[in-house]
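User: Could you check the structure of this?
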Amino acid sequence: MAVPIPQCTLEQYETEFAGRHRLYDVVSYWAARKPGAPALVHHDRGLTDTWRDLEGATAALALQLLRLGFRPGDFLATSLPFLRELVLLEYACFRIGVIHAPLDLRLSPQEVLHSLRLIRAKGFAFLGKTCLADFAELGRAVARHCPFVEHLIQVAPPEETIDGARPFAALAQSPPPELPQALHEAAAAVSETGGAQVIFTTGSTGPPKPALLSHRGITCQNMCLGAAFGFTPDTRFLVNLPPSHVGGQAEVLMTTLFHGGTAVLLELFDAARSLEAIQRHRITLIGQIPAMFNLQWRLPDYAAYDLSSLKAAVYGGQQVGLPFLRRMAAMAPRIGTGLGLTEASGFCTYTPLTAAPEDIADTLGYSMPVYRMTIRRPMREDGSAGEELPDGEVGHVCFQGPQTFLGYVNDPEATRRTLSTDGILYTGDMGCRTAAGLRFSGRSRWVLKPAGYQVFPGEIESHFCALEDKVASCGVVGVPHEVLSEALVAFVEKKPGAELTVAELKRHARSLTRYKRPLHYIILEPGRMPLNRVAKTDYVRLSEMAREQIRR
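Assistant: Sure, the predicted structure tokens are below.
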């Protein structure tokens, strides 16, 4: 069967991209070829870093980290937005084998402390007092409760730096004419198969876990994503996803740099500032989650922005309907999507950019030979992968190849449940392979079984989202039931200004097989669907809400 996307191979990765297997190799590669070209544009500050700037600043910072005692395998966590300081710090870590762990800025102090304990971070970088919060208090809490954190680095004016912390400015010194031998030796010792970055999973179906990604895994994903969606050295990509998410890091920032393009950074997402950045910097590619697109489209002056520079727009993170895809196609001449997940270092399937909205409405696209997708039965009791299933049969979506993560830090049991003994990654998604590509059925953890039948929530959610004039989103969960064992509860979020009743939803459900029909309906006002930190449906919270409603 012919596959309508580029087919990147392992041989191609090992030959054509041999000089870019480690993340800091990417900076050195392009600094040697286009030193004066822009690598980073900081929209909020009006600053630009050329490839020469990026190479020199990260080398100097890496040297400072070595002098502080950071060594390969140490963890340096950051609670920072997409500042220039963040990018310099993480690429300095990559250069000497220190593992970078970006944390979500919205974590509570207790959640930050928990995250730091999970990875036993040696260093922690944080902000000072901002208009959003006083992050200095977070630094003090880390100093009090995390004795294993040896170094606090604060991105704040020196006079505002808390006791015990180093101001970032003191570390970011100009590089010496000749870097000490220690830095060269440290960089040479970094293995492409070693850990580069920890991304905490978003926790839509459970507590976040620290997934360790390798240099090789990320850069292989960079090769594939760039080939699928047209990244080139002329690409100007708007980076407005959170830096704590694999989307913001491996997918958009690192893929842009891997292919020699220019990453235009927005420190925090804002719908209007994003459109302003597209217009000002003549952005050619954007990649966002559906909620971000919706916020932009709802701006009263959306039509006034000049978005004519856009060549393609890519979305990921959750399923969308045909009206959404048509709106995307009106925003950019080419659109795409695919399956992406932290444990696969980012994207792992891709729809063709030549496809029309109708062609990608029910597919997540195709995998590539370098990272092959299979549909399988559950993992066996001995830890080996289950039998591969034929096309059209629903099973566990799995992958094998260099993009697979190294495991969850300090959690071998969770790693064993995800990665088989024969190297097969179980993504936690259910789906089937068709001529049109991967068809998603839902998360394996959320497969529901009313009266013993197997039901995928995604199918039911899509059915109600077909009421596109009235329904903004839908989430389906199960609750215990005396007769059925498990009953389906549908949370349906109305669109602004729409009128919607339970009776209408029940009528619409009549075209579903009887056992797939929800027993309870809960209609939510616009904007009230619970979302996790990356704007995906929070099924943990939905389950809690469903149980609360049933108890009433």
